[in-house]
Amino acid sequence: GAGVSQSPSNKVTEKGKDVELRCDPISGHTALYWYRQSLGQGLEFLIYFQGNSAPDKSGLPSDRFSAERTGGSVSTLTIQRTQQEDSAVYLCASRNNGGMREQYFGPGTRLTVT
Amino acid sequence: DQQVKQNSPSLSVQEGRISILNCDYTNSMFDYFLWYKKYPAEGPTFLISISSIKDKNEDGRFTVFLNKSAKHLSLHIVPSQPGDSAVYFCAASALNAGKSTFGDGTTLTVKP
Questions:
Q1: Which of A86, A3, A102, A83 is CA-nearest to residue A37?
Q2: In chain A, which among 17-46 make CB contacts under 8 A with chain B?
């Protein structure tokens, strides 16, 4: 079946511009996660959606970052007034609520802020 | 405070030998541990997991060991193959927590 997809795969933007990153999770997966991986760093948790519950936003680094998940499926991560330190690979993952706790990751969006 | 630590940024082993990747954690509420493998320009993929009620889980060439008293787990790959060269992430989650905490990763290089 189809895995997690993300778009765009690459995004170059100028400092100060807003960007939107999209994630299509695996159909039926109730949980959706956003992570950021800066160069040479590990996975930094950003936000977590679980069904209709309020999202866990504890990892968002500033109020310039926001995310929504419409209809319990597609999610959009928005970064306003981008800064050079926002340059990173943004990874989305989804998980089925039952059974094992492994997450299924998309290929990521590489964001470069110039 | 980093709750999941992978203290070795890199590891190099010869093909056919054993690779041992280590992970330490501090949160005693963690009850489930996972290893992911990541190739360049791809997202991480799930490799193997272990519940805190076990001390060993094996899947083919991959075995994960859990030492709860030491808050330490390790991933053994035997025999190592060049295709195993990747970044390996350790992750931990607590019951009902929903999200996992990831380590910074260890880059494994398996030389032919």
A1: A86
A2: 31, 33, 35, 41-43, 45
For residues A103 and A92, give the distance between their C-alpha atoms in angstroms, rounded to a whole number: 9
Task: Compute the distance between CA of residue B85 and CA of residue B37 in angstroms, rounded to an integer.
Answer: 9
| Least Cα separation, residue A46 to chain B (angstroms) | 10
Q: What are the tens digits of pLDDT across the range A57-84?
A: 999 999 999 999 988 799 999 999 999 9
- Based on DSSP, count helices (H) and strands (E) in chain A, helices before strands: 0, 10
